[in-house]
Amino acid sequence: MSAQREMKEKNPWPVTIIIIVIGVIVIVALVTVAVLQNMPLSQKYKYGIVLDAGSSHTALYIYEWPAEKDNNTGRVQQTHVCKVQGPGISSYASEPWKAGESLMACMQEAQQRVPGKRHLETPLYLGATAGMRLLNMENSSASDAVFRAVERSLHTFPFNFQGARILSGQEEGAFGWVTVNYLADRLEQGLETTGALDLGGASTQISFVSSNYDGSESPSNSVTFRLYGNNYNLYTNSFLCYGKDQAMKLLLAQQTLLAPKTIVDPCFHPGYSEAVSYSGLYDSPCVSNRKPQGAPEAFNHTGSGNFLQCQDVVKSIFNFTYCKYSHCSFNGVFQPLLQGHFGAFSAYYFVMDFLNLTDTSIPLTKVKEVISSYCATPWDEVKRQHPGVKVKYLAEYCFAGAYILTLLTEGYNFTSDSYTQIEFIKKIKGSDAGWTLGYMLNLTNMIPAEAPDSPPLPYAGYVSFVTVMAVLLFVLVIVSTRRFWLRCSKRPQIV
Ligand SMILES: Nc1ncnc2c1ncn2[C@@H]1O[C@H](COP(=O)(O)OP(=O)(O)O)[C@@H](O)[C@H]1O
Ligand SMILES: [Ca+2]
């Protein structure tokens, strides 16, 4: 009996097993608590809504980001876009209430998409670009009435409406640049930035960082940012009236000076023929000062589809001769030397995508051949080949292709080499390239000036570290316990 008890007392295993079980429980508890305590909270999102009131149309963008990560990069993304039916808000100058009305369907969609409990805190912005810039120049009371109407509509929704306003050309260019670089994660990582080329209907923007530009030569083209601890001195310029729709008006106005009744336009397809009213053509401040005296009601716009001649007419709407700076793009506007990669979006993308020319490794000579052959295709055949494409766009792709090439090569001075540095883009990581995201990031202070402090270890590293340390500790305890019991069992028994 006493020998059995002795045996039991000397056998260390029952105690060791108890220690192992307790140890395992402690480790599991420790790691679970550490993981739960530090786990990113279940993905709750915050939202922001931006309405891009462009000259040709309005689009509503919904952005979302994880609620607890307001300050981190690459996290805000577009979750939804709604295209407003009808034209841009500047087209409602004579019946402003319709501008407000036009936004209702997309706003109702936004109300469905953003969770109800987030409505009150969700900022809502409307930014208008060159269409409203032009209307404001031409008739400021009409543009005020349009803004009153859209504000009235937007106030009826439960979001945190932050106002509707016209962006300056500089803001439009700079926020497009912020969007492109934010989405490509170039800002937080302090990488060389990508330039931004935006072609709208009424204006066009070019924005890039050039190491030989300090902002002193033409201060009005300079925008400085401090983002994630890095300083950026951005060159940006917006050319009002050089969006593709207004540029086409410039082109038509130019041609009607020579032939007021019928123009044979080399930028339109052979067989194309359309009556155009003079009042429609001259309704914009971009061309209104050029209206010929005693012009008829309308003129006949016909096409001849000759790319080379088209390029010549397109060149005539630019002034390449006057420049008071060291370098200019066109119309006497300063531009530093081009540098780095560029993302070209909006109409640049739509046009080049239609023409199958988004691949910029295609040499410029080949690009010209493709556009030339599209221009020369008879209008009936073009319509037959592309039954699903809006006829207005179809008719304009020849002009638009020639315009884009001229703007890039003669206007901004891209060469056959630097042309390959352009990427025609629509989206980056699922979000549309354009000024809206950069605008919202700026207004919600979502890009910090200084790099946010990051924990010494990433989350996965932290969890692995805690686990390894706990296991090591446990093994140590087991080994020492076993050694202790073994020593006890080997000690001579005193009887
Ligand atoms: N599918 C398409 N094909 C060709 N052009 C398009 C297409 N979709 C939009 N666009 C053009 O893109 C331009 C967008 O300009 P917009 O943003 O409305 O003007 P702005 O930025 O000057 O205020 C317009 O010229 C419009 O016609
Ligand atoms: Ca635009």
From TrEMBL:
Which terms does the record give in the GO molecular function aspect?
A: apyrase activity; ATP binding; GDP phosphatase activity; ribonucleoside triphosphate phosphatase activity; UDP phosphatase activity
Q: How does it sit in the membrane?
A: Multi-pass membrane protein
Q: Where does ATP bind?
A: 201-205
Q: Tell me, which GO biological process terms does this entry list?
A: nucleoside diphosphate catabolic process
Q: Which UniProt keywords apply?
A: ATP-binding, Calcium, Disulfide bond, Glycoprotein, Hydrolase, Magnesium, Membrane, Nucleotide-binding, Transmembrane, Transmembrane helix
In Pfam terms, one family for this protein is GDA1_CD39
| Record GO cellular component, one term | caveola
Where do transmembrane segments lie in this chain?
12-36, 459-481
Cellular location(s): Membrane, Caveola; Membrane
Q: What is its EC number?
A: 3.6.1.5
Q: Where is the active site?
A: 172
Gene3D superfamilies annotated for this entry? Answer: 3.30.420.40, Exopolyphosphatase. Domain 2 (3.30.420.150)
Q: Indicate the segments annotated as coiled coil, or none if absent.
A: none
Question: Which reactions are catalysed by this chain?
Answer: UTP + 2 H2O = UMP + 2 phosphate + 2 H(+); ATP + H2O = ADP + phosphate + H(+); UDP + H2O = UMP + phosphate + H(+); a ribonucleoside 5'-triphosphate + H2O = a ribonucleoside 5'-diphosphate + phosphate + H(+)
Q: Record's family?
A: Belongs to the GDA1/CD39 NTPase family.
> What name appears for this protein in its UniProt entry?
Ectonucleoside triphosphate diphosphohydrolase 1
Say which species the protein is native to.
Answer: Betta splendens
